[in-house]
Amino acid sequence: MRQVPGGRPDASGKCYRTGILLGALVAAMVGCDGQKAEAPAAPQAEAPVALSAENVTRAEVRKLESGPVISGSLQARRAATLRAEVGGALLEMKVEQGQAVKRGELLARIDDATLQDQLIAARSAARVAENALQVSKAEEERNGKLAQAGVITQRDFDRVKLAREQAEAQLSEAQARLALSQEQLARTRISAPFDGAVSERQANAGDVIAPGTPLVTVVDPTSLRLEAAVPAEHAGKLQAGTPVDFRVSGYGDQGFTGKIERVNPVVDPTTGQVRIYVAIPNVEQSLLAGLFAQGRVASESREALSVPVGAVDLRTASPTVLRVKDGKVERAQVELGLRDDVAQRVEVRSGLQAGDVVVMGSARELAEGTRVEVAQAPAQPAQPTQGLTPPTPR
After folding, report:
1. What is the distance between the alpha carbons of residues 92 and 80, in angstroms, rounded to a whole number?
2. Given 52, 216, 286, 323, which is the most exposed site by the fewest CB atoms within 10 A?
């Protein structure tokens, strides 16, 4: 032990070692900035994946229909292109495109001055021929009495009889010319053949037209027709009266229904398809002729439990769906049945129950057992490829 001045022993060796241990302990508890160090945080559970409404659906009992798919354009069942039957200047065009018309309503008028003159001449010729016939008949009656009395010969009477027959022929010809003139005059007035609407107006007042020139087209918008072709292998399912469900471009997901009116009895040898004609009632005139339509002949129909086609995973050996149960997704094997290509739904015969929540779209890539939380769809949904909402860090 070292001696310190004054003879007192120096215990610094022991105190020095004790100070080192105390300093290490304080350094471990105090940070460089003088703050106390925090203890390590306990691990947190993984946040659930939020699913928007576009990524979930329910298994529901719905009406499913199946049959051959068809496509074609809507046409008016009744349409008439009215053409000029006589030549001349078009004096008046009384309708515009889109205007509703009634049967017999005057649509256009062609100059009829020349035909009026011809009608007057034909009436005069008919009156002259009628008077000549009356004279011939009276002459025949007088000469008949003279021939019976022996005053004239039978040969003279035959000449009088022949003159009466010629007068009758002349009257018939004059009457035919009169009827023709009246008919020609009536053709200068173009009238609507049925109740409908003007779809096209091909001429204007003042045009000089020839016979056969199209003037106006009238269609009946209350009844349309869909012409479509169906592969010949489905010919056995095509019968008059079979329902046809279809959608029309420009009307979104709104569905329409018609019935097969006629089936062409001959298969097109070039395409191997059968043409069908579908009658479509359009009393409210919500559909327009000329629109493109796609649909399906509903040859088979039934009520069944179904899910959207996009919810089924067909990449596995057996079809499966991801079902949400107890806040987690689980894979369920399903047996499929009837597929409705128009409604894009498929029947589920086993594996699901009505009301089960299944995921669809990009959410099908979730791993089995992933915790999920079904949320409301956003006001402005993201692109389809962004259907999954990333978890919010906690």
Report:
1. 20
2. 286
User: What CA–CA distances, in Å, run from 139 to 145, 172, 173, 211, 259?
Assistant: 10, 19, 21, 46, 70
The Cβ of residue 146 has, within 10 Å, a number of other Cβ atoms equal to 14
Alpha-carbon distances of 252 from 255, 256, 336, rounded to whole Å: 9, 11, 28
Outline where the chain has alpha helix (H). Answer: 12-29, 113-149, 154-186
CA end-to-end span of the chain:
62
Looking at the DSSP bridge assignments, the partners of residue 350 are 335
* Backbone phi and psi for residue 259, each to the nearest 5 degrees, phi listed first: -135, 145
In 3D space, the residue among 213, 131, 223, 117 whose CA is nearest the CA of residue 171 turns out to be 131
39, two tokens:
């203890």
Are 345 and 306 contacting, i.e. CB atoms less than 8 angstroms apart? yes
**75-105 pLDDT, tens digit each:** 998 999 999 999 999 999 999 999 999 999 9
Half-sphere exposure of 10 (CA within 13 A, CB side): 9
Question: Over the stretch 12-32, which tens digit does the pLDDT of each residue have?
Answer: 444 444 444 444 444 444 444
Token pair 């009658």 is found at 279
pTM (predicted TM-score): 0.56
Name the residue among 125, 208, 232, 106 with its Cα closest to residue 172: 125
Q: What is the residue type of 148?
A: Q
Q: Are 121 and 166 in contact (CB under 8 A)?
A: no
Beta strands in 192-254 (DSSP E): 196-201, 208-209, 214-219, 223-231, 243-248
